[in-house]
């Protein structure tokens, strides 16, 4: 270490990192929920944690939120340890758990005010911020409605508004849009985009691959371990080949026909179209159309499309555990 | 410090909002005590009066009628029927129309006239032991009275002056509750049962509910300390418990004319300590109960039953089996019943009940410490 530089324990904080995870581990009985992971989340990122149910997303987020104690390793939030300096971490984070965790018998404004008060937000700030937040989220006309009578999307927006009242720098969102209708999901992400522009850091867990596209960075997590990570573009480029979409009257028959064609990798159903990765040097349309014609499948349209996260996920799942591919197919879109 | 008070205030306000919007709980903590009070004081009275009585007079003489009139003129017996055969007794007992039967055999008057011992049969329906016991005592007393009268008549007839004869006349007085009214005895105890239910049950549930709702996690990541949460949770229930104490004392004094002979402040301090001890028990349950239902059942077991059965409220503690009496020491209700009855009926003050007050303070302290430790362990999963 340089003698002229400040000693590390003076609390000099690398403010380019919102989260720095080293060797973090947590088990529940025999189950390893998080297996010794390292991960960095740059400040200002919208960081997507992608993975199926039970992958360890919630466990990771709850440890970052200091509500769950790690078995080993540590994580820093803006340079403060979540295990040793929780009191310095919590004022800077907003944590939104996967399930609705507001008081159902209190109104929107009562919930908002209560949590802001115990978070130490002054009365004046509570008034201005709740007004602004409720208006920007389209909840202004529901301020007096009890939380139990809100729709799913409104409940999620209320939770988000509540986590924003004390103006945290890092938002930890655990599947904020699961079970929410597509319109509300889009609106929720519009709000997140606004927060991103305002300079907030966001760690968001999601099982939806289309939401991954909206993140500045993503990491795949499965069985408690981090797989691929990077920007969505980087990750897409790591998948070799060209994504090809095959529209057919009988997609399952088409999928079967394409299974063993040379040059085809990771064929999977996406809704009611077939998607394959074409890794041959020649253009994909002719050989695929020929293979389908050979199998007597008529009325097909074959076209190359840009890579998307959905297919990246399917491909990654295929290469890692072929048997699991089916269960990961087709999130909502 | 100011920030802490603001946070505690937020919890207190929130708890009152929950309560205000939950009509069932509101009913349970305000209306139930009143209903219980009325039920206990009116319906479940241990007072024995106007016991329905059937008289069967096989003798049918002036003397036998005179003897029977002892019962009809007594406030304790209410002669509802005059039967003519023993089967009438069976019928009346079966139909519950009478609980006591007075059978005067034929030859009653003749025996008396001959100076022999006349016999009457007093049959008592024992299916209600309390009434049976009291009826027996009363009829024995009536018979003694009658015997004395007969003796005096006989002495007069013989020209003897009995006043020169030494006789023993016991004068039995019941202290503290001379009329032995059961409301005087029940209401000071009932207060304890009601406080125990309100405080233990509600606190047992209130923390578990935060866990169930998931709001616990949000509270954990706020700067609020655990003790602030505890205080904020306990304050509303302390207030409500005191409201119940005031309500029961007020109704007891006005409607049931229960005397408050002792030092009011002794009662207030005792009630406060008992409330804290009960709240501590509630918190302890909250700390260990995995679900709302379990919390409710445990609360029922440790609040209602001991304060009802093992406190001296319903059964005198020296009348229950020794091992149960030992268990009763583990619950705060027995100390509070002693304090409450002492103050209400015996005119006690701090000098008389300080040992119980000290025990209650210790109990409250231990409970709140244990539950804080356990609750903390539980929440740092």
Overall geometry of chain A comes to globular
What is the terminal-to-terminal distance of chain B? 28 Å
Q: What's the structural domain tally of chain B?
A: 2
Radius of gyration of chain A: 23 Å
In round numbers, the mean pLDDT of chain A is 86
Supply the helix-strand structural class of chain A: alpha/beta
Number of strands of chain B: 4
Round the mean pLDDT of chain B to the nearest integer and report it.
82
Largest sheet of chain A: 6 strands, mixed
Low-confidence stretches of chain B: none
Structural class of chain B: alpha/beta
H-E string of chain A? EEEHEEHEHHHEHEHEEHEHEEHEHH
Strand order of the largest sheet of chain A: 6-7-8-3-9-10
The helical percent of chain B reads: 55-70%
| Number of DSSP helical runs of chain A | 12
Give a written overview of the molecule.
The complex is a heterodimer of chains A (333) and B (381). With 333 residues, chain A is of the alpha/beta class. The N terminus and C terminus of chain A are likely disordered. Chain B is α/β, with parallel strands linked by helices. Chain B has a 4-stranded mixed beta sheet, with helices on both faces. Chain B is elongated. The model of chain B has no long low-confidence stretch (mean pLDDT 82). The chains are: A alpha/beta (333), B alpha/beta (381). At the A-B interface, helix 3 of A face helix 1 and helix 8 of B.
């Amino acid at each position: 270490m340089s003698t002229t530089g400040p000693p590390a324990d003076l609390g000099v904080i690398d403010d380019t990192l919102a989260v720095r995870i080293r060797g973090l581990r947590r088990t529940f009985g025999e189950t390893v929920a998080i297996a010794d992971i390292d991960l960095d989340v740059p400040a200002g990122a919208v960081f997507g944690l992608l993975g199926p149910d039970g992958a360890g997303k919630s466990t990771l987020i709850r440890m970052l939120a200091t509500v769950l104690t790690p078995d080993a390793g540590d994580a820093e939030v803006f340079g403060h340890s979540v295990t040793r300096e929780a009191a310095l971490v919590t004022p800077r984070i907003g944590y939104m758990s996967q399930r609705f965790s507001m008081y159902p018998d209190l109104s929107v404004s009562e919930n908002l005010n209560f949590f802001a008060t115990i978070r130490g937000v002054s009365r004046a700030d509570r008034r201005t911020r709740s007004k602004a937040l409720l208006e920007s989220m389209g909840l202004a006309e529901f301020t007096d409605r009890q939380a139990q009578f809100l729709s799913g999307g409104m409940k999620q927006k209320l939770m988000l508004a509540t986590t924003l009242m004390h103006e945290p720098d890092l938002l930890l969102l655990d599947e904020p849009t699961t079970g929410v209708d597509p319109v509300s999901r889009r609106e929720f992400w519009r709000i997140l985009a606004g927060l991103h522009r305002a300079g907030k850091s966001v760690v968001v867990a999601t099982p939806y691959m289309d939401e991954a596209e909206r993140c500045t960075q993503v990491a795949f997590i499965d069985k408690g371990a981090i797989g691929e990570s990077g920007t969505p573009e980087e990750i897409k480029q790591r998948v070799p080949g060209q994504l090809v979409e095959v529209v057919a009257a009988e997609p399952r028959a088409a999928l079967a026909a394409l299974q063993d064609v040379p040059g085809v990798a990771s064929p999977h159903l996406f809704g009611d179209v077939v998607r394959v990765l074409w890794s041959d040097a020649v253009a994909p349309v002719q050989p695929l159309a020929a293979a389908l014609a050979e199998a007597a499948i008529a009325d097909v349209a074959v076209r190359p499309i840009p890579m998307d996260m959905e297919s990246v996920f399917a491909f990654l799942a295929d290469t890692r555990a072929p048997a699991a591919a089916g269960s990961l197919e087709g999130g909502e879109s | 410090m100011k920030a802490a008070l603001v946070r505690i205030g937020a919890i207190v306000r929130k708890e009152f909002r929950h309560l205000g919007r939950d009509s069932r709980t509101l009913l349970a903590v305000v209306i139930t005590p009143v209903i219980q009070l009325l039920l206990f004081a009116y319906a479940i009275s241990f007072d024995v009066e106007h016991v329905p009585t059937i008289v069967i007079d096989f003798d049918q003489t002036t003397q036998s009628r005179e003897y029977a009139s002892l019962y009809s003129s007594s406030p304790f017996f209410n002669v509802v029927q005059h039967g003519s055969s023993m089967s009438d007794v069976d019928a009346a007992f079966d139909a519950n129309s009478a609980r006591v039967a007075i059978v005067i055999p034929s030859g009653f008057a003749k025996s008396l006239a001959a100076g022999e011992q006349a016999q009457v049969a007093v049959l008592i329906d024992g299916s209600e032991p309390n009434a049976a016991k009291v009826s027996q005592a009363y009829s024995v007393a009536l018979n003694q009275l009658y015997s004395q009268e007969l003796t005096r008549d006989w002495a007069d007839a013989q020209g003897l002056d009995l006043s020169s004869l030494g006789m023993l006349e016991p004068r039995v007085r019941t202290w503290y509750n001379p009329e032995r009214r059961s409301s005087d005895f029940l209401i000071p105890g009932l207060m304890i049962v009601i406080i125990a239910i309100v405080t233990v049950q509600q606190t047992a549930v209130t923390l578990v509910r935060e866990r169930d709702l998931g709001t616990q996690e949000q509270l954990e990541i706020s700067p609020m300390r655990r003790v602030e949460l505890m205080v904020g949770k306990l304050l509303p229930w302390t207030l409500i418990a005191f409201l119940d104490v005031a309500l029961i004392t007020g109704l007891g004094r006005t409607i049931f004319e229960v005397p408050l002979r002792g030092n009011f402040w002794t009662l207030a301090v005792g009630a406060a300590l008992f409330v804290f001890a009960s709240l501590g028990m509630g918190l302890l349950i909250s700390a260990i109960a995995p679900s709302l239902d379990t919390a409710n059942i445990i609360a029922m077991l440790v609040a209602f039953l001991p304060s009802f059965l093992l406190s001296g409220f319903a059964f005198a503690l020296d009348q229950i089996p020794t091992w149960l009496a030992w268990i009763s020491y583990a619950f705060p209700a027995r100390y509070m019943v002693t304090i409450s009855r002492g103050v209400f009926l015996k005119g006690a003050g701090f000098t008389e009940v300080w040992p119980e007050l000290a025990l209650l303070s210790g109990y409250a302290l231990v409970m709140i410490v244990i539950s804080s430790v356990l609750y903390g362990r539980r929440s740092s999963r």
